[in-house]
Each structure stands twice: as structure tokens, then as C-alpha cells.
Amino acid sequence: MLDDAALAARLATDAGALLLRIRVELGFADPAALRDAGDARSQALLAAALARHRGQDAVLSEEAIDDPARLTARRVWIIDPLDGTREFSEPGRSDWAVHVALWQDGELAAGAVALPAQGITLATGGPSAVPARSAAPVAPAPPAGGGGPRLVASRTRAPALVTTVAEALGGTVVPLGSAGAKVAAVVRGTADAYLHAGGQYEWDSAAPVAVARAVGLHTSRLDGSALVYNRPDPYQPDLLVCRPELAAGILALVARG
Q: What pLDDT is stored for residue 88 in this prediction?
């Protein structure tokens, strides 16, 4: 039987493969229909797989009715069947993702972020936990290159705070789609920080944060407090994922407004 990290990677990868097929089947003529099909069919795949492999666990998903039983469960899978639906429905874009994370006894215990259009899945647990098909193991993020830090931000609703922080640090803002794609950019070393102040939900960040923590990146709220999951209200106002050496400076800038 697959362990939790391997299962997260396998499910995220399988859902990603399905989403690629849906893109081919439906095309891009009707973006709304494509988004709806992607959300629904990826949710169905993940729900069925979790029921089959981890039937005793609770699930919190963007695409399912919230079951309050999760609040007394020891193990809760937090999933986003399609993160970045706008980008998924646009031809040529690869900055969309599938998120699968496990919360256990108060902490994120495993997670995987599939980037199907990029052909990779980043996962906790090391190489042995990652299915060989289209997934790649998480490796330590390489050092940042020359110049100021690169801050990834939403391509459609980036908060002004990101620009302010980037300017103060002598850095640049890099627009990207899904939260999973943004955190993956920091994990892979193509960006240095991701800060968000516009509000998200736990399924937007649980799997990306689990992967980021696995390689030693800083993760927190913008006030420096810990990110907490499986709360009664899954709304999450803000977050910061960055290289550890940048965290103090970014948090100080945010605190000063």
C-alpha cells in the first residue's frame, strides 16, 4: 500500500493527467465549460480515489460541500482539484495545478502539487514517495541568482503590497497564475518569495505549503504567525512563502505597512 506522501503524489499526478485530456477533448472555444468540466471531473477522480485508499479519513475540498465531521477527525485530506481555473482554460498556459495534502493531528503531514502542463509533480517524502510516471521529487531550492529577489504574485489581482515590498528590496514582481504554481516557482528556485494579502482558502495553500516546508522554505502568515489548517472557517487571509534569509526583511516591511 502506498504511504501518505506517495498517495498524495499519485493522486495529484493522476488528476493532472485527466485535466490534460479534458483540455484536448473540449478545446478552448468555451472557457467556462472547460473550467466547469475540469473542476467536476478532477473532483470526482480524487474523491473516488480517497474513498478507495483512505476511506476512514475526512476530506476538505474546494469542490465539495464541507462536512463538519472533519473538525473532530485526526486525519483530513485538503484538496484543490484544479487550482488556477482561469489559466487552465487559456491556451498555452501552464501555471495551473492540482493540490493534494494530508493534515494529521494538527499539522500538514504530506502534500503534492502537480503541474500537469509542465510535466512535473512536487511532493513531500523524497524520491521513493513519488510515482515515476510524470512526477519529479522535491529537491532543495537552489540559491537565488544575482540581482534583487523575485516575488511572484497574482497575474490578475496582485495586491499593491507586493509591488511595495519588491521595490523596497530592489526586486522584481513576476506574475503567475495558481498559488501552486507560485509556490512551485519558489521551491524550484525560479522565484524567491510569494506573498499574498488578498485572501485565499486552505485548499489553495495546504499542499504548496507542505511541499515548501519539505525543502526548508519559510512559511507563515504575513504577521509572522503560523499557518493553521483544518479550522472551522477555511478562509486564510494571507501567507508568505520564501527563502529563509528573506523572511525577516519581508515581514518587517509588511509590519511597517
A: 98
Residue 137 lies in a domain: no
Residue 166 lies in a domain: yes
4 annotated as belonging to a binding site for a ligand? no
Residue type at position 244: P
Predicted local confidence at residue 137, as pLDDT: 46
Query: Which grid cell sits at 60?
Result: 476538505
Residue 132 has pLDDT above 50, yes or no: no
The residue from 77, 99, 129 where one domain ends is 129
Is 204 labeled as ligand-binding?
Answer: yes
Instruction: In whole angstroms, give the CA distance from residue 237 to residue 185.
Output: 21
Please tell me the predicted confidence (pLDDT) of residue 133: 45
Which cell is 132 given? 515515476
Q: Are residues 22 and 124 in the same domain?
A: yes
CA-based radius of gyration for the chain: 17
192 assigned ligand-binding residue:
no
How many Cβ atoms are within 10 Å of 213's Cβ, its own excluded? 17
pTM: 0.93
**In which domain, by residue range, is 251 found?**
150-255
State the amino acid at position 53 in one-letter form. Answer: H
Contact 31, 22 (CB under 8 A): no
Ligand-binding site membership of 82 (annotated): yes
Q: How far apart are CA 236 and CA 254, in angstroms?
A: 17
Q: Is the pLDDT of residue 138 over 70?
A: no
| Distance from C-alpha of 58 to C-alpha of 105, rounded to nearest angstrom | 12
Confirm or deny that 83 is annotated as ligand binding: yes
Shared-domain flag, residues 14 and 119: yes
Last residue of a domain, one of 98, 129, 160: 129
Domain contains 97 = yes
Number of domain units in the chain: 2
Residues 116 and 188 in one domain: no
